[in-house]
Amino acid sequence: MTSWKIFHLALLGLFITIPSVLVAQNAAPSKPNIIFIMTDDVGYGDIGSYGAPDIKTPNIDRLASQGVRFTDFYANAPICTPTRTGFVTGRYQQRYGLEAPLTHEQNSDGSGLVANGRSLPQLLKNGGYATGLVGKWHLGYADDQSPEAHGFDYFFGFKSGYADYYQHTNGGGFEDLWENGERIDIEGYLTDLITDRSVTYIQEHSDQPFFLSVQYNAAHWPYQRPDMPSVARNNAAHLQPHIEDTSTREDYIAILERADEGIGLIMQALQDAGLSENTLLIFTNDNGGEWLSRNAPLFNRKSTTWEGGIRVPAIIRWPGVIPAGEETGQVGITMDITATILAVSGAPLPANLNAEGINLLPILTGESPEVERTLFWRAPNRSTRAVRSGDLKLIVEGGNSFVFNVREDVGENNDLTNQRQADARRLRLLLDAWEADVNAEAELAGLR
């Protein structure tokens, strides 16, 4: 059998979609509000409900106690721009030629994600939702790549990969705080500004269905804690462990705990507006943690396709629809969130959407059993590639292949390649065929 036929058969299982949201008779109205919260560079083991021993995240943990916590959830990529592309499009980011983080120069030269009318916020807007983005964008500066072009009615935040928490400048030292297409200059710790604008958005849209995407910069470097004296705010000293007088785990903890406080305020705003019961709230992270993060019990970190680079926390809460305080081993990925949001919204979908995620709601409500997944990753410089099919994962790094049962061996300690040679060949064929497919689409569009 040719590799393409093998890949085609895999697609039958890979791109399963569940068209309707199956919920209890007492479910919320047909157009719930939707809030998506994404943190940045936070480790799998940095959340209390995921085993963090030294970070207090009571609000994220409260989400877990009120919803379903995923143990086997993945980012679309081991780094930021690609994962955000997967979320906005609902498809593998390689199809758009975006598998590395945009630099501030690329952000300015048109290398971002061009709007095509099929972005998640645009589809929700078409379906009657107010749409807001507060926080990080990182998908392009050009007008046709802006949040507004992709369907966001409101945007407050920054467009680069990271921003100074106090000066609101990007990696090139340029001002990078925006509101509705205009640069603005206001004072404040960026995490707090993101929280404040998110709360205001909820208050101002409480009388209509809304989709709010909250994209925290925390806990991405520069590691500038919220109580940092002004004389210590030079971000150049906070990037890497080998720099003298660099940042510490304690700095990182303060940054993440401030974001958790913000999430608590967002939850309170929903409660105050009487919207908690009719709001689907999703929390996750964009990729594995950096050097100050705790990715335990996973191996490695951001920028790699080892579990520490791609497996992330994920929690979904919808009171009265999704059971509270449960854990699921259902394998998921960022673009599943896209498919789930679209299904919940009831927004009309174009025939050429070609979504690659699945609607998770019927699985979370118990109306459908868990489904086996086949998912793919490729690191920005293509130095590592990976496929997970069922419980088995193949990693190709340089000239070496590794096979792990990541259900039983989350730390990827026990290489099974010499015992599972047939599986190594099978998974490699799937990976090669997937790469050929996404590369061909990108090349056809002139994006590779």
The total strand number stands at 16
Distance linking N and C termini: 29 Å
CATH topology of the largest domain: Alkaline Phosphatase, subunit A
Element-level helix/strand string: HEHEEHHHEEEEHEHEHEEEHHEEEEH
The low-confidence runs, each spanning 5 or more residues with pLDDT under 50, are 1-29
The helix content, as a percent range, equals 25-40%
Under CATH at level 1, the class of the largest domain stands as: Alpha Beta
Largest sheet: 10 strands, mixed
Indicate the overall shape.
globular
**How many distinct folded domains?**
2
Strand content: 15-25%
Q: What count of helical segments does DSSP give? A: 11
Question: CATH-wise, what's the superfamily of the largest domain?
Answer: Alkaline Phosphatase, subunit A
How confident is the prediction overall: mean pLDDT? 91
Rg, Cα atoms, Å: 21 Å
Q: What key attributes describe this structure?
A:
alpha/beta; 10-stranded mixed β-sheet; Arylsulfatase, C-terminal domain; 448 residues; 11 helices; globular; disordered N terminus; 4-stranded antiparallel β-sheet; Alkaline Phosphatase, subunit A; 16 strands
